[in-house]
Design a protein that fits this description.
transmembrane helix, Mercury-R_MerC, elongated, MerC domain-containing protein, 85% helix, mainly alpha, membrane, 5 helices, 118 residues, transmembrane, 0% strand
Length: 118
């Protein structure tokens, strides 16, 4: 459940990062566009991503003892920090961190299910 929520949250971040530039490029606007494109939205999504990661990965590691999901989470955290402090290619870092964290959550979920079926 933890990893599913984490993957969904990271997926929302990914959709946000991919959809807003497309909407802006096509001239599409809506009432919440300014709010969704603000920097505070990135910070809230980042905070949610990190909360779910801290909730899911340590307990997953204790259960399956595989480092790969946690390493993916650390790589995603580094990419998030780069996105927060980079002046160029910021969206690229956000997209990469979302995809990396989704991969980590899915791997963690798979390993937990594989262990439970033993």
């Amino acid at each position: 459940m933890r990893d599913a929520l984490g993957a969904v949250c990271s997926g929302l971040c990914l959709i946000h990062c991919l959809a807003l530039p497309v909407l802006a490029a096509t001239g599409t606007t809506f009432i919440g566009f300014a709010m969704l494109s603000s920097e505070s939205t990135h910070l809230w999504l980042c905070a949610l991503m990190m909360v779910f990661a801290l909730w899911a990965f340590p307990s997953g590691w204790r259960a399956h003892k595989c480092l790969w999901p946690g390493l993916l989470a650390i790589a995603a955290a580094v990419l998030v920090l780069l996105a927060l402090f980079a002046s160029e290619a910021e969206e690229t870092y956000w997209i990469a961190s979302s995809l990396t964290l989704i991969g980590g959550h899915l791997m963690n979920r798979y390993l937990l299910r594989a262990r439970a079926s033993l």
